[in-house]
Each structure stands twice: as structure tokens, then as C-alpha cells.
Amino acid sequence: MIVVKVGGSEGVDLDAVSRDAAALVRAGGQLVVVHGGSHGTNTLAEQLNHPPRFITSPSGHTSRRTDRRTLEIFQMACGLLNQSLVERLQRLGVNAVGLSGLDGRLWEGTRKEAVRSVEDGRVVIIRDDFTGTVDRVNSALLRTLLDAGLTPVLSPPGISTQGDPINVDADRAAAATAAAIGARTLLLLSNVKGLLRTFPDESSLISRVGRHEVEGVAEYAQGRMKKKVLGAGEALASGVARVIIGDARVNEPIRGALAGAGTVFE
Amino acid sequence: MIVVKVGGSEGVDLDAVSRDAAALVRAGGQLVVVHGGSHGTNTLAEQLNHPPRFITSPSGHTSRRTDRRTLEIFQMACGLLNQSLVERLQRLGVNAVGLSGLDGRLWEGTRKEAVRSVEDGRVVIIRDDFTGTVDRVNSALLRTLLDAGLTPVLSPPGISTQGDPINVDADRAAAATAAAIGARTLLLLSNVKGLLRTFPDESSLISRVGRHEVEGVAEYAQGRMKKKVLGAGEALASGVARVIIGDARVNEPIRGALAGAGTVFE
Questions:
Q1: Would you put residue A260 in left (φ > 0), alpha (ψ -120 to 50) or beta?
Q2: Closest residue of B to A96, CA-based?
Q3: CATH among 3.40.47.10, 2.60.410.10, 3.90.1720.10, 3.40.1160.10 for A2-265
Q4: Is residue B8 very low, low, confident or very high in pLDDT (cuts 50, 70, 90)?
Q5: Of A31, A247, B6, B259, which one is least surrounded by beta carbons within 10 A?
Q6: pLDDT tens digits, residue range B221-233?
Q7: Per-residue pLDDT tens for B115-126?
């Protein structure tokens, strides 16, 4: 069982990812696909005159300001990417089923009651943000679908215990999913070669990271790579044998990563 | 087993439909919810500067011109309504799962190869339209979900045999779904009281239509009501015992229709 998380950013070759996924399923493999929707959300939010805004926490982390309208735009962007992946996989003979974390309470977690944001040097408390983390994965639903010969394609948002949709990080949700269904391998594919010691110098790729070296290499992660390294560490700690941060811009992104291209955590 | 199709037009009370659906599920009933996305598609298409266009066929039928961009907008609008229903049901304790007709090839059918459109008095052939009809329903997938205690919430588009997404009519898709899963009752709820002999005079409501009277009353149907009467006839012919065209603007829309409000076909 493999969980493949694929980014939706520029350069990512969704056709190549889909072809590779289909080859794996045809060979008898079981697969869960996970994706986010950040890039599409930014584009759609601009088109709908509700431009993306970002929050910087007192500790320096950046996250999307997710008010209710942004949440709707996020749901539409994630949903469209989800259905474009389902369409690609169906054309390749894979019986894909798209689900969000709301469906069947697939990704249940905690909504942040108060988000702290630094604005003009002052810390402001935001209470109407729809952001949170995944605490529980409905692995029974995924098992039911997989046993029926279906390939789940999963996307944010998640759902809070109270029933609110929550913007959750797709890399970390993929890590929680891999752990919950007992996947041996988690692939985090995006438009980078892997974790780089000196971003953006691709010759500085870190090829192997031991189980106890995750915290040590986390300092090299820039921007969105931080969540991938965090997810990799969480997956390893929860029993996933191998996590690979790999490149989705190449011709055989899944087979390439499984063969050891990218940064392998094990 | 009941299939409830609910429209997304103005006046429809989705909270009331969800409350009523939840009461039914809590009482041990099994339910499949179906919805369309016409109203939301029109709004979103205007917002995204790709205004809705409609085709009139030589026989006088009107349908949406669904080019690839319109299809995407349709997918986003349907998807958002789908997730807002799933969210409402989840808050009420119903473990809802949203699916499109692409997911698991739920609604498989035929894409129209050529759409005939009357423009300035001439018949024009359109070949890049993503429109079609549902020929087969993946009832095994619906059974699997229902048996696992989940409540499916279904939405267009469907999928052609070749793997193209197709804009399908949700009333007729609901009829095909009810027939395929052996539902006894199909409810078609929208912002009208039922089939009216003299639209829009609500005192002219036709209360009962016998199995052999469907063609006779079809002449009274105006606009979108035509597809509902067509769907009602198709469902009855495929073994559904009772179809009710009812009002979704009231406080207990499902219980009201089941009690005989609206137009009952049986």
C-alpha cells in the first residue's frame, strides 16, 4: 500500500503522475492519492475578487487566512483539481473516487479557536478562521473503497469534531492517512527535486535521512518544504517505513521516487 | 429506500431538507440525496466572466451550452453545493459522503457527439459540447456505502463510456438512480408546489397522476418541470413505485411530500 501526495503547483505533471499511478494499480498495487489546492485557490481567489491573504504567526510561520468565503473558494479549487485527477485516472482504466476530508468524516480534527497573527508589529487574535489539524482518519471508509477495487483520491478540507470544515495541510494529512491505513510508503511529490541543503541549488539534494536525523535536517527546509519534513517525521513516528520527498516534474514521478530519487527518509 | 432530489434554486430551504433527511436517517431509513447545480453555475459563470449560454434545439428544447470552461465552472458550482449539503448533514449526525457521477463511474452514459442548435434561424452543429445522458448507475458502489452506514449525496456531471465528463440532468439522473438501487420512492423537490395545470397558479396543482396518465399531463409542464415529469415517467417505467414532485420551500419538505403534498405519480 502506497500513499502518493501530489502538489498542484506549476511544473507538476499531473498526466505523468496519473499514468504512473495507473501502471501501479494495473500491476495489482493499492494506492491512495492525496492532493492540496493552494495554487488553484490563489488563482480562483484573484478571479473572484477575494484575493488571498496570509497570516504570520508570532513564531514566524505563514498560513492562509481562511475566512468563510476563502474556505468556499478553497473547496471549489480543491474540488476541481480532485475531479481532474479522477477524470485522468478513469481515462486510464483506474476506478478512482474523489473525496474531501468532510466526506464520511474522513479527516477529522481540531479547529483552531484562535489564530494569532502579527500585523504591524502587534499580535492580533482571529476567531473566525477555518483552519485546523487532522487528528483521526476514517481508515474503515478507505479500506471499504480499496477492497471494492476503487482508488481513493483525497483532498482538503478536513472536518472538525464540531462539524466545521477546516483548512488542513495536505502533506500532513497524507502522513496521517498513510499511518492510519498501514501504508509502507508515503510519497510527497511536488515541483522540487527533494530536500535541498542550500535552496534552490538542486546539487545540494539530501538523498538519505535516517529516522533520528529528521529534526536535524528540518532546519534546511524553506517555505512549504517545512510541512513536508514535518509530515515525513510524523509518518515515520507512526509506523510508516519509508517517506520519499520527490519530483513530480519528471516523466515517471512515482516509479522514480520509489527507485530512490529525491530525499528518502527511513 | 428513498431517493431525494433537491434543486439549488432560490427559495429552496436546504436546512429544512437536511433536517428532514437527518430525521429519516435517525429513524433507521436509508436515503440517497441527489442535487444539481444550475443556479450556482449561472452565478459563478457571471463572476468568472464566462457568462452562461443556452442552446435551443430544432424541436424547441433549451439546454446549457457546456464548453470545457463551462464544464469546469459547473463542476465547481455542483461541488460547492455538494459539500455544503454534506456539511449540513454531518452537523446533524448523518455520515454523508459526496460523490459526482465521475467518482467510481457512478453515472455512466453517452456523450452527445453533435448538438444541434438553432442560431439566427439556421441549424448549427456543435461538436465540443460536454452534454449527455445517464445509461448505467454504479449501484454496487451505492450499496457498499449504504451498507457501511453512509448517506450518499450525488451530483453531476456524469461520465461518458470514453471517460469524458458530461453535463447530465439531475432529475433524470435521480430517476435512474432510484430505479437502479430499487428505491420504492423518488422525491423531486424544488421551488414549486408540484405540477401545475396553469403555471404559475398554485391552485391549479395536479395532485395525482396515474401510471398511464404521465404522457397526458406532460403537456402542462413548463421549462424545468418538463425534465421532472420525464424523470417521473422513466422512474415509474423502471419499477419505482411512487414519484412525488414536491415543494422544498416548506418547513418539512421530505415528510410533507411523503405525506402526499405535491404531485404524486403512482
A1: left
A2: B104
A3: 3.40.1160.10
A4: confident
A5: B259
A6: 988 899 999 999 9
A7: 999 999 999 999
Q: Do A104 and B76 touch (CB under 8 A)?
A: no
- Interfacial residues of A (vs B; Cβ cutoff 8 Å): 47-48, 72, 75-77, 79-80, 83, 86-87, 90-91, 95-100, 102-105, 140-141, 144-145, 148, 150, 159, 163, 165
Residue A146: what residue type? L
Mean pLDDT of A27-54: 96
Q: How far apart are the first and last CA of chain B?
A: 16
Q: How far is the C-alpha of A247 from the C-alpha of A260, rounded, in Å? A: 11
| B105 closest CB neighbour out of A90, A100, A144 | A90
- Is B141 in contact with A150 (Cβ distance < 8 A)? yes
Contact, A189 vs A7, CB < 8 A? yes
Per-residue three-class SS string for A230-262: HHHHHHHHCCCCEEEEEECCCCCHHHHHHCCCC
Please determine, for residue B7, whether its predicted confidence score (pLDDT) is greater than 90.
Answer: no
What ipTM is given for this predicted complex?
0.97
| Residues of chain B contacting residue A72, judged by C-beta atoms under 8 Å apart | 80
> Under CATH, which number does the domain B2-46+72-108+138-265 receive?
3.40.1160.10
- Count other Cβ atoms within 10 Å, centred on residue B54: 9
